[in-house]
Design goal:
The protein has 219 residues and is α+β, with helices and mostly antiparallel strands. It has one domain (2-217). It has helices at 39-48, 53-60, 99-103, 136-142, 146-165, 171-182, 184-189, 191-194, 202-217, and strands at residues 2-3, 14-16, 36-37, 61-65, 72-76, 86-87, 90-91, 106-110, 115-121, 133-135. The strands form four sheets. Strands 1-9-8 form a three-stranded antiparallel β-sheet, with no helix packed on it. It has a three-stranded antiparallel β-sheet with strand order 3-5-4. It has a two-stranded antiparallel sheet with strand order 2-10. The N and C termini lie far apart (39 Å).
């Protein structure tokens, strides 16, 4: 994988890309990958599959402590070196696929001052040789990524706030962060213990968990 760090794309900048089953590389990007899942990704996927977040996390994910942030990072657990949801015909959870899948071949970068995108190139990918041209804004709209970007920004405010503070979580705080941010159904079950409100809507419950962590950890 090569990320073109030299070229920064704004929303009106353009690139050429197209992916479809007629390409010989179709589905290859779903193999040998490390796919980080954000809280909103998990809500969408677990509802798509008709599972609780607790069941989804146990069956399809693993987590580790991020070297830079010291926070739990959730990744999709591969099956036979591939995404567990990829089929010969394509993605079986396409309507609820994670943000990074939607944005590909773009990588989103964001700071308090600006938002920009880099292009990802992989040797096998024929998509870049197609003639379909998009602006970044058009690609985001076409892929339904705007809501993912907004939800991820809320979570990253917490992550970057903790990173900037230099605070390192102890074991109990780590477990609470994991539940509050990633496991909305468990959060409902332990809401009294955590001191947070119970929300019927999963996205609202996810946001409540993130806000809880902001109140407790960004003092």
């Amino acid at each position: 994988m090569l990320i073109d760090n030299e070229r920064r794309l704004g929303l009106e900048d353009t690139f050429r890309f197209s992916c479809h089953p007629g390409l010989s590389c179709f589905n290859m990007c779903c193999r040998s990958l490390t796919l980080i899942l954000m809280p909103y990704d998990i809500v969408r996927l677990k509802n798509c599959l008709g599972m609780s977040s607790t069941e989804f996390l146990e069956k399809y994910t693993e987590w580790h402590v991020g070297a830079a942030t010291g926070l739990p990072v959730v990744t999709l657990k591969p099956e036979n070196d591939a995404c567990p949801f990829v089929t010969e015909k394509g993605c079986s959870v396409y309507s609820d696929r994670p943000a990074s899948c939607r944005l590909y071949p773009l990588v989103r970068m964001r700071s308090p001052e600006e938002e920009y995108y880099h292009i990802v190139y992989e040797d096998f990918c024929e998509g870049h040789r197609q003639q379909k041209e998009w602006s970044v804004k058009e690609w985001i709209e076409d892929q339904g990524a705007e809501i993912y970007n907004r939800m991820n920004d809320v979570f990253m405010e917490l992550v970057l706030g903790l990173y900037s503070s230099g605070k390192r979580l102890d074991g109990e705080e780590m477990a609470k962060f994991y539940t509050a941010c990633y496991d909305v159904d468990m959060l409902r079950r332990v809401s009294d213990e955590f001191g947070c409100e119970v929300k019927e809507d999963d996205v609202e419950q996810m946001l409540e968990g993130i806000e809880l962590m902001k109140r407790e950890l960004l003092k």
